[in-house]
Amino acid sequence: MDRSAELSANLNKVKAELPSTVTLIVVTKTFPSSDVKLLYELGQRHFGENRDSEGAEKSEQLPDEAVWHFQGGIQSNKLKSIVKWSDYIHSLDEISHAKKISQYAQELGKTQRCFIQINLDAGEEIPGQRSGVKPQQLPEFASAISGLPALEIVGVMGVGPLNGDPNQAFANLQKTSGSLKALIPAANYISAGMSSDYKIAIEHGATHIRLGSSILGSRSPAP
Ligand SMILES: *Cc1c(COP(=O)(O)O)cnc(C)c1O
User: Fold this and answer.
1) What distance in angstroms lies between residue 187's CA and the mean position of ligand 1's atoms?
2) Atom 11, ligand 1: which residue's CA is nearest?
3) Is the four-CA dihedral 70, 191, 150, 44 of positive or negative sign?
4) Does residue 223 lie in a domain region?
């Protein structure tokens, strides 16, 4: 099977079971632009990247109709570039980053749409561990950034636990989404679920799923 047929089969398999209200983002990190172009030709429009340099390069090579999502860890010195090429940032979890995003977006004459990343780790905090705003701190965080002129909060994003119950984590995320919507009713998106756990995420209200390996095959080594 050639690459296009392989990608097409993988896409169709996932999409056959996907509710029409759920947006599929294909995470193309580490895969070449040629794969992104094939996916585009197959009708796929939403793409996700974790690194600024890769996203900048690939987005340049695709038609404007492609929609680009950044979901990697944010380095503030890369933010200006990320705001240039991304339509959505999923990994916002610092007020200082939000201020910079709004400033850069304003300079470019755009409004940057952002998900607030929520930390779904249960129990004790592990130093230097996973990113995200703690669910109980979300109202304060959202209030602090909601007045920024060129930043639009569209919802919450979460990464399921490495070891642990994705059901509990995504239920927690859905609850947290409720507390965000109480403050900002339009911020009703939930970005949750990767190849291993997206079906569970959809049961808990995911509106956007981020799939890499189930469409493109395994990445080796992970970035
Ligand atoms: C890599 C990545 C994905 C896609 O992961 P797969 O397991 O390949 O589906 C989704 N979300 C984030 C934040 C990622 O870093």
Assistant:
1) 22
2) 210
3) positive
4) no
